[in-house]
Amino acid sequence: MAAAHTFCGDLRAGTDPFAIRYAMIKSSMDRGTAVSGDEAQWILEAAAVAYCPDYVDAVVNSGTPR
With 0-12 CB in 10 A as exposed, 13-18 as middle and 19+ as buried, what is 41? Predict the structure, then answer.
């Protein structure tokens, strides 16, 4: 839940959803628990649906192949 709130805060601040996904993937790799691009997209979409629905369209249509 904390991560979802952070993602929504980043979206509200104008951060590109692609940049959020990239940071999520990089952070997971640094911890040795790699998250795939598809997994990162799903997590970001779920966070938007649950905590910041105004950004769902921007996240879903952010141009990353799924």
Answer: buried
